[in-house]
Design goal:
Shape: globular
Number of strands: 12
Number of helices: 13
Strand order of the largest sheet: 2-8-7-6-5-3-4
Largest sheet: 7 strands, mixed
Strand content: 5-15%
CATH topology of the largest domain: Aspartate Aminotransferase, domain 2
Order of helices and strands: EHHEHEHEHEHEHEEHHEEHEHHEH
Helix content: 40-55%
Radius of gyration: 21 Å
């Protein structure tokens, strides 16, 4: 199998799998318990929080474990708006956000909030100057992706943060950094964001675990009430297997110093191989080292994907959450229908190899030589 759909999910790395097993068999106590197993679990939880905090350039008390990116995005938007409800009811986001943000914004609109959704530029990124122009005295939240999950386009979040500050606007800044985490160098300080959402299963940790950076002193309303775990922000007995696996995956990623360069090299290899062989091919957006969105106009992406799947090559046509619908991201970029309908997303991970890129190129070239192309 050639697996090149790492933007959808990644293979769990051995370090994370071992950590999860150890959590279930050795650190199985409840971290809230006062006996020996509880104390052991609590110390392991503390160490994991420190690891994730270091990876983000944050303090441990600013890190809260969640069930993943969708929960984090929901909490950031709902909690941020509730906190700032006396300042106004205007939100700025974009047309290219993940559905976890888009659908939550729809829900906020139903509650009376006004949402300005900015269009991306030709590269797929949102321009900071467009954010600056949309800011108003009653803007309470700006929520923008760092790296787009379909095109890999990188939005300049630090410039957005500066625009908010320069305008004297009270708005909180949230960034969905799920696709950028561990792939695009950043710290919460360099981003300038108040809330940063990350997820484990994009970096070779299991599904069902994520983390949220919340700037110190920012008292978001809790999303889950109960026993007061996670500083009272997210109650419920902690998911120790997921948390320790996330920390292990973070350590493994940070130890693999050449991962970003390898992924970027594979991306360029695919472009360099396919461009002369398939002259109609178009590269859509880009910027992140691990995501390559390309289009073969005249071919249907579903047919291309099925052809590649028959060869054991796994890619996608966009977000795994879309389930067959046309990409709202590519539509927002105002691309022609034939370009959108021929789009394929290739995404690399730490374990992707040159042989995978070679097989992909051979498969796509073979597909275009075999499949029917519409006029």
């Amino acid at each position: 199998m050639v697996y090149l759909d790492n933007a959808a999910t990644t293979q769990v790395c051995p370090e994370a799998a071992r950590a999860a097993l150890e959590a279930m068999t050795e650190h199985f106590g409840n971290p809230s318990s006062t006996h020996g197993p509880g104390r052991s679990a609590r110390e392991a939880l503390k160490a994991a929080r420190q690891t994730v905090a270091e990876s983000l350039g944050a303090r441990p008390e600013e890190i809260f474990f969640t069930s993943g990116g969708s929960e984090g995005d929901n909490w950031a938007i709902r909690g941020g708006c509730h906190l700032m409800r006396h300042k106004g009811k205007h939100i700025i986001s974009s047309l290219t956000e993940h559905d976890a943000v888009r659908r939550t914004l729809d829900a906020m609109q139903a509650q009376g909030y006004e949402v300005t959704r900015l269009a991306p530029g030709p590269d797929g990124a949102v321009a900071p100057e467009d954010v600056a122009a949309a800011l108003r005295p009653d803007t309470v939240l700006v929520s923008l992706m760092l790296v787009n999950n379909e095109t890999g386009a990188v939005t300049d979040i630090p410039a957005v943060a500066r625009a908010i500050k320069d305008a004297g606007c009270p708005a909180l800044l949230h960034t969905d950094a799920i696709q950028g985490y561990m792939k695009v160098p950043f710290s919460v300080k360099s981003l300038g964001a108040d809330i940063v959402t990350v997820s484990g299963h994009k970096i070779h940790a299991p599904k069902g675990i994520g983390a949220q950076y919340v700037r110190a002193g920012l008292r978001l309303s809790p999303l889950v009430l109960g026993g007061g775990q996670e500083g009272g922000f997210r109650s419920g007995t902690e998911n120790m297997p997921g948390i320790l696996a996330l920390a292990a995956a973070v350590r493994a990623y940070r130890a693999d110093a050449g991962a970003r360069e390898r992924m970027a090299a594979l991306r360029e290899q695919v472009i360099g191989t396919l461009s002369p062989a398939l002259p109609d091919m178009q590269v859509l957006g880009g910027g992140a080292p691990h995501i390559l969105c390309l289009s073969l106009p005249g071919y249907r992406s579903e047919v291309l994907l099925n052809y590649l799947d028959s060869l054991g090559i796994c890619v996608s046509k966009g977000s795994a959450c879309k389930r067959g619908a046309r990409s709202h991201v590519l539509e927002a970029m105002e691309l022609p229908a034939k370009v959108i309908d021929g789009a394929v997303r290739i995404s690399f991970g730490r374990f992707s190899a040159q042989a995978d890129a070679d097989a992909l190129c051979q498969g796509l070239i073979g597909a275009c030589g075999t499949l029917y192309k519409s006029l």
